[in-house]
Structures are given as C-alpha cells and as structure tokens.
Amino acid sequence: xxxxxxxxxxxxxxxxxxxxxxxxxxxxxxxxxxxxxxxxxxxxxxxxxxxxxxxxxxxxxxxxxxxxxxxxxxxxxxxxxxxxxxxxxxxxxxxxxxxxxxxxxxxxxxxxxxxxxxxxxxxxxxxxxxxxxxxxxxxxxxxxxxxxxxxxxxxxxxxxxxxxxxxxxxxxxxxxxxxxxxxxxxxxxxxxxxxxxxxxxxxxxxxxxxxxxxxxxxxxxxxxxxxxxxxxxxxxxxxxxxxxxxxxxxxxxxxxx
Length: 257
What we know:
Helix content is about 45%, strand content about 15%. It is α/β, with parallel strands linked by helices. It has an eight-stranded mixed beta sheet, with helices on both faces. Strand 7 (about 240-245) and strand 8 (about 250) form a beta hairpin. The two termini are about 30 Å apart.
C-alpha cells in the first residue's frame, strides 16, 4: 500500500505513540486526522504539522473515544475534509489499575467501536473501497503482566479481536485488513509515575521494574516504524507485530475453526 494521498485517522494521536504514528504517516505522504481528548495539545500539534507538511495534510478533532456520538462526528469530519478514509490507527489507550472500568472502556470497548465505525466507511460491503485497521495492543496482550491484570486483559482482548476480525474480513471479502502492534516498554506518559497507576497491585512494582530493566525502554519512533511494516505490505492481515528495543518480530498463533 503506497501511502501517497491516502487518508488516515489516528485515535490518541496528540501524544506518545499516536503522535509518532501521525508524523510517520505524514512523512510517507498520507493525510491524517488525529483524534484526542486533549484539545490544547492536539491543536498545538496540528498547527506545527501543517507548517511542516502543508495546511491540507493534517486535521485535529477533539474526541473522547468513549463517546459513540463524538466518534461518529469525528469520522464524518475526516471524510468531509479529506474525501475518503483508507487507514485507521486504533491507538487510544490508558494504563491505570485504579480506574479499571475506565481502562476497559477505553482500551477495549472503544477500540471495538472505532473498528466497527471504520468498517462502515471502508468495507466493500458498505460501498467502501477497503483499507487497513491497525490496533495498538501491547506485549502484555501476549504474556501476562502481573502488576497490571486489567491492562493485560484489555490488551489480550485487542490481540484476540484483531485476529478474529482479520479472519472474518477475509471470509466476507470486505477488503479491510486487520493487524496489531504489540510494543514493549515505550518512553511515553503511559508509564509516568507507574507505581501510582498500579493500585492494589503496587506490591508488584519491583518485579515490573526488573522487567523494564531487562527489556529496556524504546523511543516512540520505533513503534511507528513497525506501523509502516504492517501498512505497506498488503499481504499482511491478522498479523501481530512485537516491537521491543532489540528486535521486531511477528507473533505466531494457531487458528481454531
């Protein structure tokens, strides 16, 4: 998939991994709508992006991904502005075991809602022209992170949903590919003051930090490069890409039918 003139929508696009994704997409010639709840940061970022890439290349839409109404309006605004939709980076997420219901709402429920809304616009079954949906999971979605059990559950859900939807879309021949990114530890606000985010599992913080020391922490740009690998190869669907500071590899899984 050549990205020149393609249109992408990125949730959680104002900071961290989402910001890096937006920059990488624009660098490769795409037009990008970035959705985020942080209006000040999103507005400031898009002004800088328009100076760098052109005024017709980037759009910011303030959006709470927990709101179906706001998401629908954001999708509509993207298509009204750019004319179509080819790529959705389902990236919004939080880590806070003290607010586990909110974490499920954002990391899993909203992720599913965004994917279904994307299909309404992109699926050939709905008069779309196909496209690709990339869901941001985590290495915690492939192996449990004991210090963050609910976060782990949500990311297992992202991986499972991605794999199942990829098979369902192939069966329906709807032209939409599904892939997932599973980063290790990334230098973002997600891990700021991590002990405070562990809630009743704060006693596991030392074990978690040992794991961080073992695996290392990487820059967001490495995750964005992984995104490109999943986007550009049109044969890739149902793939789960593990990205760590030292390697990038695809996870294996067994299909059950």
